[in-house]
Amino acid sequence: EEGHGYALPRNIDDLHAQRVAHLISCKTGGRYVAHVPWSTDSADPVAKDWAPKFIPVKELVEKLKRFLKYHIEIYEKMDLPASRVFIYSGHGGNDPLAAFSEEIREELRLEKLIITTTEGPPENIVAMFEAISDFRNY
């Protein structure tokens, strides 16, 4: 949660990302699995001023690996495919996570992992939607 002013709820990033994730799952036929309840910020320690629950990037990466492993194991027990994972974050401070996507993908033996946020120029958003086309009917 981070402050965006009095007009918006502190969890607006979460609400936005969950809505977009649901829309993406409907469009692609993929499954919405869970909300990742943590975030980081590229501003690191200073971020605690506006995001009191700030977690350093490397700590968040380790938490994310455990979180994903837990959900992947559940899907595997149900004989459902779980080798392609798409993480969409509504919090731009999570941008540093993308740099760890290959490490996470290899450690969890995923076929594909995409981590993206709402931040950045419009061409990033277009590239994101092109990338998730692989997730159709998966």
Task: Describe the structure using short key phrases.
single chain, 138 residues, mainly alpha, two-stranded parallel sheet, 2 strands, 9% strand
Describe this structure as you would to a colleague.
This is Creatinine amidohydrolase. It comes from marine sediment metagenome. The protein has about 140 residues and is mainly α. It has one domain. Helices cover about 40% and strands about 10% of the residues. The chain contains four helices and two strands, in the order H-H-E-H-E-H. The chain has helices at about 10-30, 55-75, 100-105, 120-130, and strands at about 85-90, 110-115. Strands 1-2 form a two-stranded parallel sheet. Strand 1, helix 3 (about 100-105) and strand 2 (about 110-115) form a beta-alpha-beta unit. It starts with 11 loop residues before the first helix and ends in a 7-residue tail after the last helix. The model has no long low-confidence stretch (mean pLDDT about 80).
